[in-house]
Amino acid sequence: MSNAVSPPAWSQLIQDHARSHPKVLVGFGISLLGVVALLLQGEVWLNAAGNDTVRWALWGGLAGLLATTLGAMPVLFLSGLKQKTEDVMLGAAAGMMLAAAAFSLLLPGLAAGEKFTGTAVGGAVLVVLGMALGVMLMLGLDQFTPHEHAQTGPCGPGNERCNRVWLFVMAVAIHNLPEGMAVGVSFAQGDLSVGLPLATAIALQDIPEGLAVAMTLRSIGTSAWKSIGVAALGGLLEPIGALIGVSLVGSSAMAYPVGLGLAAGAMLFVVSHEVIPETHRNGHQTSATIGLMVGFAIMMVLDTTLG
After folding, report:
1. CA separation, residue 121 to residues 7, 45, 87, 135 (Å)
2. pLDDT greater than 60 at residue 173
3. How far is the C-alpha of 42 from the C-alpha of 49, rounded, in Å?
4. Which DSSP string do the residues of 196-216 spell out, in sequence order?
5. Using one digit for the tens of pLDDT, what is the confidence trace for 218-237?
């Protein structure tokens, strides 16, 4: 008779992980309650069939999915990518995300909040509240979702039970969810001057992200087409996140600045916690930082031109 001890159940792994990260668990719970509260007040789905904001949000999310997939396509004829080149590309993507959060989320959020509350301070409080919810949401997803990054390895409870390919899918999904939510929130009030620049920037920065994911998968022996499929699968969170984002706000004047702040906080968390550290682990900090500045400048021009 075998004396082997059976592995703990998945639920037990999550419980053990939660006990070791109680503050993160509390913050994650608060953020989920906040998201649910925003969803319940949203009126978008009551007339979704004829709602232009839903269609714009969905198209913006689908653009991100398409860009991620197209970005992964070069793995069909590229045998590898220099680490410095990858770091510069991801740095540019980080710069575009930072600028998008600032110009297309935080500034419109502050303006909408001031209009709703009648004071600049009141508007800022609403946006900061949203940012806090976004950060706690992403911190919880990062801690309690099994995933893997190219440099830091597997993370989250039960990651040893998951195939590496699926761990990469989850990592891409965690990155793409806040981007999709940002697109959805930006279109929620039907203001194309806010939504269009952000959707364009998100789609552009998804191209190098898709390539980086696909090249990483190729480096661990995944076939070219499967690598593209994994990148596309993770990119599905863009349109899903967009629908969630547009539903968070609905037609509520108060929820709009909170929703913009939530999306901005989530994006800033991803950039600071994941993207920038990835570009600074391989000795190419200066090149990656220059890429970030270029990406920031491109997004600033896009926002000025399309906004």
Report:
1. 52, 32, 38, 21
2. yes
3. 15
4. HHHHHHHHHHHHHHHHHHHHH
5. 877 778 888 888 888 778 88
Asked whether 198 and 263 are in contact (CB, 8 A), the reply is no
Query: Can you give the pTM of this predicted structure?
Result: 0.76
In this structure, the number of other CB atoms found within 10 A of the CB of residue 290 comes to 15
- Among 94, 96, 101, smallest CA distance to 130 is for 101
Q: How far apart are CA 44 and CA 256, in angstroms?
A: 13
The token pair that represents 182 in the structure block: 């940002």
**End-to-end Cα, the chain, rounded Å:** 71
Checking phi first, is residue 212 left (phi over 0); if not, alpha (psi -120 to 50) or beta? alpha
- Would you kindly state where each structural domain of the chain is located, as residue ranges? 22-306
Tokens 């661990």 -> residue:
220
Whole-angstrom Cα distance, residue 27 to residue 189?
Answer: 28
Dihedral Cα 185, 186, 188, 192, nearest 10 deg: -170
pLDDT digits (tens, 9 = 90+) for 250-301: 666 778 888 889 889 988 888 888 788 888 887 888 998 999 999 899 888 8
Q: Which two tokens stand for residue 248?
A: 């968070």
Hey, how many other C-beta atoms are within 10 angstroms of the C-beta on 112? 26
Q: What phi-psi label fits residue 158: left (phi over 0), alpha (psi between -120 and 50 degrees) or beta?
A: left
